[in-house]
Amino acid sequence: MGILFKENKRNFCIIAHVDHGKSTLSDRILEITGAVDRKKLQEQFLDNLPVERERGITVRSQTAYAQYTYDGQTYNLNLIDTPGHADFHYEVSRAMTACEGAVLLVDATQGVQAQTLSYSKLALERGLEIIVAINKIDLPFADPEGTKTQIEEILGIKSDPIFVSGKTGFGVPELLNKIIERIPPPMYEEGAPTSALIFDSWYDNYWGVIALIRIFNGKIKKGDKVKIFSSGKNYVVHRLGFVIGGITMERDVLEEGDVGFIILGTKDISEVRVGDTITSAQNPAHAPIPGFREIKPVVFASFYPVDPDEYEKLKESLMKLKLNDYSISVEYESSPALGAGFRIGFSGTLHMEIVSQRLKDEFNVDVVMTFPQVAYRVVKIDGQEIEVKSPAEFPSPEKIESIKEPYALVTIHTKPEFVGDIFKVCEERRGRQIDFRISSGIAVIKYLMPIAEIIFGFNDEIKSVSKGYASWDYEFHSWEESDVVKLETYINYKKVDELSTITVREKAQRRSREIAMKLRELIPRQIFEVVIQVGVGSKIFARESVKPYRKDVTAKCYGGDVTRKMKLLEKQKEGKKRLKMIGNVEIPPNAFVEVFRVDRSSKRQD
Fold this sequence. Notes:
Alpha-Beta Plaits, eight-stranded antiparallel β-sheet
């Protein structure tokens, strides 16, 4: 046995900060290589989810197969376009497992941003060959040379970048040449058993589970018997081939170094897991291919179907969604107020919003979301340590010995003139400064902050105080002891856990007032008074009420003794008491998230 190379193949991904032009550059590569007919090529061709086109961002990594001739030889290119937002870091890590190289794209008008730094480090850790491309050089405010200096000083990457324009196609042929020259071809072990890594999957109503694979050793043909390594189950290969933006191109065989799809004829989504290995049933591999590292969710929220009868539909939709979004975790949950639902873990709040929208767009399921929370580690008096993912799981104060909350290392890139305001935002959110430096007109700020303080509203504040120029990224750092309490919300003296939250003790009183006042605005008037109370345990910090509608029961009284009117009003009052006891308060679905939004800008002006 020896190590060989597939000299005519190149596997690479495009990595960049959000909105630096990855999808547009992918369009030009597909156009120049002729992989897609120009008549069929539309903008952001690889972004085929409705939510991606609506928001203008890439949510899922997409693969594209193309052929390109260089120096008289034809090369097979497998391109993977990746997301740019920090919440989809897991998608990028999965894409890198199928590649030998990466094109690091930097916007010439914005320079090095937070995710540029994060993804370049991830690519270097994976041992990928990095080709730097500076994009949008056709724009009037582009600064290619200044961006090149930032790349060298901030990223520490010294190489000759390719200047390109994804919009006009300038420099893209030179970039393709550089990809062939510098990115190493896939290597494989001669005579080794067949082994392929599953790095993505999705569900098709007709074919069932479709898996995206990267073959490291051996060949897979249509009709072959293969085995899933973890389960040991055998399957027959029904179809396989390449993919261009969700469009499949069937082939009879995939070989070493290929990135493509495979259909095994199963509709059980639990049988084909991302990160698993496919091998030959007759001559199986001895060990699975080392996969990518698992990234644990950091934000948790509950999803309940708006229509309780759609619980099974929501369950099935989540399982199908989890096929191509393996970074979510799903657990069953039941609520007295909202019925049966699921506690779901996400990479961030944008990820949460995207999942909610995908459920509606792709599966026609409307959900009620609760406010996102982080997980806490609670050590009880008896020494037992538990992980609390929702306020409903939070133990009573007398049972708690100590509480730890997760902290993240937050890296912010901005212009120097906005540094003071950004310091203020971070310190208001309990941040501790770790590092601060200025290089090539870019300030790089690092803070250690509780994840609970950055999951909601932090991005809006940073963008606001920096006039949109700042970008930021975060990664889990450690668990630190913290003095946090559970704020409980009562509606007409009944506790509603879905409207409860966890906060630090020093902010409990102020947050209670904010929650009570917000609920008073959100809850519509009923035919009886609605009492809202918020506090910790038996101590109520805030009380508000929603005044009832008043029906004019005396309208038909024309003259006569005043006691006639008084009797009618007393009778109405008694009826309202009975309604208050047995009536259910109507709470709009958006209240479960909107109630916790805080207007920090107005608070800073006070």
